[in-house]
Amino acid sequence: MEKSDLHGIFYNEEYLLTVTKGYVQLNTNIETDHKPFFPKILWREKYEYEEKDHLIQISENLAVLPTSDFNFEVILILDLDQHLPMRRFK
């Protein structure tokens, strides 16, 4: 996998992850009345790419676990106990 392979938009029912050449942004709709949208920004950080064992650190606070087909889905790791499957939106 290369650094540019993760550029895109990934989502599930509660989170929207945007990965660009320059930044990573994680939005949520938790505790909002706008469920089809993701108005609350949790993190906006510089995009980094560092492979660590089976994880890829994409910013200071966010890491992903690639699935067998990372073109369609990754697992976002917010902390050690919370793994969130997210599908790619194209």
From TrEMBL:
Organism (species): Chryseobacterium formosense
Protein name: Uncharacterized protein
